[in-house]
């Protein structure tokens, strides 16, 4: 009898949840980190990338061989490049030129075509250009910012995993906000299990630039974002995010990116205000894709 071996797609999700050991957490609280860098392409974005493609296929919106287009600041692009390689799609990714060289190299390694806009034009221009290319018949935009299949991935996987791993004891969920897919899907699931769970979003302070998270202008606020699903938003400075990221590597052995540092910084701030809580935060990716930027040096 033939053995039905798994494929790499079967290993998206099911990531570890670990507690902090050496960084002090105030007031008897437990701080748990969901290690999304353990996904095959190295970030939490593996979940929605695969979900958006598979659900679009199921609806008949796309089929192998089609060209997909997406605007990305990095992690979604890498995850989509992996998913496109698995599924047999061409992929064009549009991103600001100031993204790290590791991210660009990873996307190219998976076979994606990269198109850059200037740092000044930013993600807003990247998103507009993706829609322009779709209108010109160059491919299909998956649009992580408006696509309900993005938060659906987290409703189906990330949220249930956190609930099961904490045995239902979670009291607070903390996540940096970029497309907002993670916080929307997890919030929806956790609130269905226990409406008292507090959902906390992280955004950069004015003037701070933290890869992967944004303070969106109102006109570009992701359409999947529902304000009612977030109980509180904490502003994090770039300095806080980077210092916490370095502390996680040096004191906990958790090697992650800047937005993950921001998430833990927000969770530690929250721990100063509550007691005997179980706080879960998202470590969205791995630190190796930021080495060339010098943030660890």
UniProtKB/TrEMBL annotation:
Gene3D superfamilies listed in its UniProt record: 3.40.50.1100
Catalytic activity: O-acetyl-L-serine + hydrogen sulfide = L-cysteine + acetate
GO biological process, one term: cysteine biosynthetic process from serine
Residues with the N6-(pyridoxal phosphate)lysine modification: 45
One Pfam entry name: PALP
Pathway note: Amino-acid biosynthesis; L-cysteine biosynthesis; L-cysteine from L-serine: step 2/2
Top EC class of this enzyme: transferase
InterPro entries the UniProt entry points to: Cys_synth (IPR005856), Cys_Synth/Cystath_Beta-Synth (IPR050214), CysM (IPR005858), P-phosphate_BS (IPR001216), TrpB-like_PALP (IPR001926), TrpB-like_PALP_sf (IPR036052)
Domain (Tryptophan synthase beta chain-like PALP): residue spans on this chain: 9-285
Coiled coil (residue ranges): none
Gene Ontology MF terms in the entry: cysteine synthase activity
Keywords carried by this UniProt record: Amino-acid biosynthesis, Cysteine biosynthesis, Pyridoxal phosphate, Transferase
Binding positions for pyridoxal 5'-phosphate per the UniProt entry: 75, 178-182, 259
Superkingdom of origin: Bacteria
Cofactor: pyridoxal 5'-phosphate
Enzyme Commission number: 2.5.1.47
Family classification: Belongs to the cysteine synthase/cystathionine beta-synthase family.
The protein's name: Cysteine synthase
Organism taxonomic ancestry: Bacteria, Pseudomonadati, Pseudomonadota, Gammaproteobacteria, Oceanospirillales
